From TrEMBL:
The keyword Transmembrane helix applies. GO terms for cellular component: membrane. It comes from Sinorhizobium alkalisoli. The chain crosses the membrane at residues 17-42, 63-81, 93-119, 140-161, 167-186. This is Mechanosensitive ion channel protein MscS. Residues 349-370 are annotated as: Disordered.
């Protein structure tokens, strides 16, 4: 008892700030110790197959340590010999920190959940329609959720200040010109936000979709909460606002499925046997690695003054292979006609006709196209 009383007297003789620092240090140490024990237990409870919880425990350890530190300081502030103003200021700062840390933990949980969920889908697969659908939905919804989380956290922080809270209440209660001005100012932001929700639900475009927009062909590389990045065929990037795809027409070549039918036109003289071209096209397509064997057609689609128009259709597994297949057919058909039927190539013919005064001799040239 003498030792305890002596210690109490010695503590009373110490300055208040020294006692406060000591008390806060003890509570901080206790909070960190509880955090360490809790996460050590969580690591043992989480199984190796539970990827989400294992990743969440690993990623949330740092913000949870900060939360333990905040709660330790908050508990110590109620015990330490602080003045009412000092304790109030410390509790207010800790409350703001706690709101930010909780938002950080929720953001981490959203990120881990989306990553773990999307790992079952492979964008580089040959038939990646389902993967593109889910990846597009989750990326858009994750950005929207993170934006709403930031807004809610910022609002919660501001509402902890009495002056800002009163101003917000008075602003919400007023229905005058200020509300109209704010609404007009936020119209582009709200428009893109609603377009993002609509895009995630209806999905006119998805990640890695092959599209033709603004006269350019490319693939959807990124979809954010405000804009879409299209990687063009020559590696340029076309950046368009999100609401563009809700208000303007465009071509989506992989909306329902990746396979496409490629078409090409060949212009030859009337003397060219069409059956020979048909057999040659079938031979070229059968040897090509780009042809999927589903659609093959050769038909004369137009008869012009000088040539006939032959349309060749061939299907491929995706837009890239369809483009390569069309180029391959063009090259080999032209090479075949040049070698086997050179007279069937389109040309402008000039015939010599006898003159009226000198029959049978060179005279005027009469032009005939054929």
């Amino acid at each position: 008892m003498d030792i305890l009383s002596r210690m109490e007297r010695e503590i009373e003789l110490l300055p208040d700030w020294v006692v406060s620092v000591g008390v806060l240090a003890v509570f901080i140490s206790a909070g960190l110790l509880i955090h360490r024990l809790a996460f050590g237990l969580l690591r043992r409870l989480v199984g190796p197959k539970d990827l989400f919880w294992r990743s969440f425990v690993a990623r949330a350890e740092r913000p949870a340590r900060m939360v333990a530190l905040v709660f330790g300081l908050y508990a110590g502030a109620s015990v330490a010999p602080l003045t009412s103003s000092q304790a109030g200021a410390l509790r207010h700062v800790l409350l703001v920190c706690c709101i930010i840390l909780v938002a950080w933990i929720v953001h981490t949980a959203i990120h881990i959940w989306s990553v773990v969920y999307l790992r079952r889908f492979q964008l580089d697969a040959e038939d990646n329609l389902l993967a593109r659908k889910h990846v597009t939905q989750f990326r858009i919804m994750r950005r929207i959720a993170n934006s709403l989380l930031i807004v809610l956290a910022a609002a919660a922080v501001l509402m902890t200040f009495e002056s800002v809270r009163q101003y917000g209440v008075s602003l919400l209660a007023s229905a005058g010109a200020a509300g109209i001005v704010v609404g007009l100012a936020l119209q582009p932001v709200l428009k893109n936000l609603l377009a993002g929700v609509q895009l995630a639900i209806t999905q006119p475009i998805r990640i890695d979709d092959a599209i033709l927009v603004e006269g350019e062909f490319g693939r959807v590389e990124e979809i954010t909460s405000t804009y879409v990045v299209v990687k063009l065929w020559d590696w340029r990037r076309l950046v368009l606002p999100l609401n563009y795809f809700m208000e303007h027409p465009f071509q989506n070549w992989t909306r329902e499925s990746a396979p496409l039918i490629g078409s090409m036109m060949v212009y030859l003289d009337y003397t060219m046997p069409v059956d020979v071209i048909r057999r040659k096209v079938e031979e070229i397509a059968s040897r090509s690695v780009n042809f999927d064997g589903k659609v093959m057609n050769v038909a004369v689609t137009d008869l012009r003054e000088n040539v006939m128009q032959i349309r060749v259709l061939a299907s491929a597994a995706d837009s890239g292979r369809a483009f390569d297949l069309r180029c391959e057919l063009r090259e080999q058909i032209i090479d075949f006609v040049q070698q086997k039927f050179p007279n069937a190539l389109p040309r402008l013919r000039l015939e010599e006709t006898p003159s009226a005064t000198s029959p049978g001799r060179s005279g005027d040239w009469q032009e005939r196209s054929g």
